[in-house]
Amino acid sequence: MKKILNILVKTGIPLLLGAVILYWIYRNFNFEEVSLAFKSMDMWWFWLSCVFGVLSHAIRGWRWNLTLAPLGYHPSSSNCVYSIFIAYAANLIVPRIGEVSRCIVLERYDKVPFAQSLGTLVSERLVDTLMVVIITAIAVLSQWHVFYAFVADSGTSGSATVFSSIGRVAVFVLSAIAVGILLYLLLRRMSLWVKIRSFISRFWAGFTSLAKMRNLWLFIAETVAIWLCYFLQFYLCFFCFPFSADLSVAAALLLFVAGSIAVVVPTPNGAGPWHFCVMGIMMLYGVSSTNAGIFALIVHSLQTLLVALLGIVGLMMLQIKKQ
């Protein structure tokens, strides 16, 4: 009973939270316009963005291989990439479970101890967090007037906001509660880990692997490349629609940062909070609420579909290699 309840909490709450926020955002939306926009969108730009989406996962897999080398483990580069595909797809079902699943994949196919591979993920996440902070600082400083307007919930260019003050507060409160629950579950899991000394030792070895890395500059270059691919995957989608094609790179960077921070909220691929942030900021650049809603819904849906398909590819390729 306890296990069933735990599964329901991990899967049900994120799905419910995302569904509630999406319902509130799109409750009065005309979905016929979404269908028309989808049929008329320039898919060439979307397919090009998909190339960078796949490339970002591949580079992340190669970078992970690099962090495992100082520990004496040299898993197959392809297995590392497939594990990334599976991890991101797993996050669509249970947010943040992907980190565990990718470690399980390497333990099963390349005999890399779970604890040490998990430790390398912690160091990876710290570096990625630093990248988010740097990108956020650049975006906010370059577009401070728009960022301040978004926080203050005031529009520019006469754009009317679809977010009432009560609704806005509700989204932030629900998101904060969800993040709090996620942190509690992670801390509780950590409290179980610390009871196993051998696990801590291996975990720490993985965590400190960056200090022993010979190809540190390659690690840095791959980190920059990952985030550049993330940004290009998002930015190229602007050219799919006439109403967003003229937005500047600086505007895209601010929207990218907002979306990157929104996915911290444990909903499937950030569904709900991502739409809320992207729509709100696009409207501050003069995009209508309808067009902003169309962009957020179509782009997020297609990118989520890509993640799911890559997860299936990863599973299939691992099975083929196993035979």
Radius of gyration: 20 Å
Q: List unreliable stretches of 5+ residues.
A: 154-166, 190-196
> Rough shape?
globular
What's the total number of strands?
0
**How much strand content do the residues show?**
under 5%
Alpha carbon gap, first and last residue:
37 Å
Mind summarizing the main beta sheet? none
H/E element order? HHHHHHHHHHHHH
Enumerate how many helices there are, as a single number.
13
Considering DSSP H and I runs of 4 or more, what fraction of the residues is helical?
A: over 70%
Structural class: mainly alpha
Compute the average pLDDT: 81
Key features of this structure:
323 residues; mainly alpha; 77% helix
Describe this entry's structure for a reader:
The protein has 323 residues and is an all-alpha fold. The two termini are 37 Å apart. Helix 2 packs across helix 13, helix 3 crosses helix 4 (77-93) and helix 11 packs antiparallel against helix 12 (273-284). It contains 13 helices and no strands.
